[in-house]
Write a structure and sequence with these properties.
It is a single chain. The chain has 117 residues and is mostly helical. The radius of gyration is 26 Å and the shape is elongated. The protein has a domain of 49 residues.
Length: 117
């Protein structure tokens, strides 16, 4: 028998009302999952419904079966993260291209690297 650490936690429920154990344990597990998700993913995770073609879903399931991802959610979350990174990279490249064009138009505004030391 487990002993509580100064409170009436799960051991109290087991001893005094064992039929409530699944409900109470599930509540504790869900709160723990929310805590882990908020740490790992940087905030509360929201569940959404998503429509995908059968072909796309089969591809994701194949990746999960191959061990590339833990589950469908992990695969979709990773794909979205890759897309976000790609968009950030595109914006950065766009900024570099703009700055390069500005430098070509106004070379007198450039600072020689030797002067930066």
């Amino acid at each position: 028998m487990l002993k509580p650490r100064g409170g009436r936690g799960i051991p109290f429920i087991i001893k005094n009302n064992p039929q409530q154990l699944p409900q109470k344990l599930n509540a504790h597990v869900e709160r723990f999952k929310c805590l882990v998700n908020s740490i790992v993913y940087g905030g509360m995770v929201t569940q959404v419904q998503l429509r995908l073609s059968q072909k796309t879903l089969e591809e994701i399931d194949r990746w999960v079966a191959e061990g590339r991802f833990k589950n469908r959610s992990d695969a979709i979350r990773t794909i979205v993260n890759f897309y976000e990174e790609r968009e950030k990279t595109r914006e950065f490249f766009k900024m570099l291209t703009t700055r390069s064009e500005e430098a070509k138009k106004h070379p007198e505004a450039l600072i020689p690297l030797e002067d930066l030391q």
